[in-house]
Design goal:
The protein is mainly β. Helices cover 8% and strands 44% of the residues.
Amino acid sequence: MRIELSFLKSVKRMIDANKYTKGKGPAFFKGKEISGQRLKVLIKNVREQNLQNTGETLVIDFDFKKEIRSIPLNKTNVEALIKELGADASRWPGHEIWLVKVLVTNPKTKEEVDGIRMKGAEKKVKTEKVAAK
């Protein structure tokens, strides 16, 4: 499956969503960090990052407890965000989404662990100030 995405510099190119099916790292936000079943976050940035073991991965940055955290996107989450926010990833920052804790099977260890699914994108948050009347 090939999906056309337009990235931060408005450069259009074809990006194979299949390459975003992997990617974890110790610095990345984990499902076990979600207290309860879901967490609403604001997307601050979308970028590509080259991971040591898996190659290039699409990553979103968001605010979490007053610090910027990141999540590498797998194919399922890329497709969910495209469905909710559209294929132009440069338009994703400023949108709120839900990070939902789900039970997933680690493909290497076959153990069940907390994973993350992204759902329920809401309208873009307005950041400009409104003049008082």
